[in-house]
Write a structure and sequence with these properties.
This protein is mainly beta. It has one helix at about 60-65, and strands at about 10-15, 20, 30-40, 45-60, 75-80, 90-100. The longest helix is centred in the middle third of the chain and has 8 residues, at about 60-65. The chain is globular.
């Protein structure tokens, strides 16, 4: 059986940050939004790429992010998962956050 791939690495600006909260099991979680802008090669031409992603961080990553200011440039890694059982909209579950200096 082939292992399914689900890995995302993206850089963007922190544009929205909810308050740190806790799941019913006591796990810290924070919801946030990341805005990405770049240029990528596609079909032999450069294309401007813009996207906004809804994301979640848990445990230490949630605490780290909750202390970060809006407008900060981040590099995040994680995986995509449905928002909940009723909404299949993908949400980025972040497993690693790196604050990028110089912003």
């Amino acid at each position: 059986m082939i292992e399914a791939a689900n890995r995302v690495e993206i850089t963007g600006v922190l544009t929205e940050l909810q308050s740190l909260r806790y799941t019913p099991a006591g796990v810290p979680v924070v919801e946030f939004r990341l805005a990405h802008d770049s240029e990528r090669a596609e079909a032999g031409a450069k294309r401007k790429v813009s996207a906004e992603l809804d994301a979640l961080a848990f445990e230490a990553q949630a605490r780290l992010l909750a202390a970060g200011p809006l407008g900060r440039l981040l590099k995040v890694e994680g995986f995509l998962c449905a928002k909940n059982r009723r909404s299949r909209k993908p949400v980025l579950h972040v497993t690693n956050i790196e604050f990028i200096e110089g912003n």
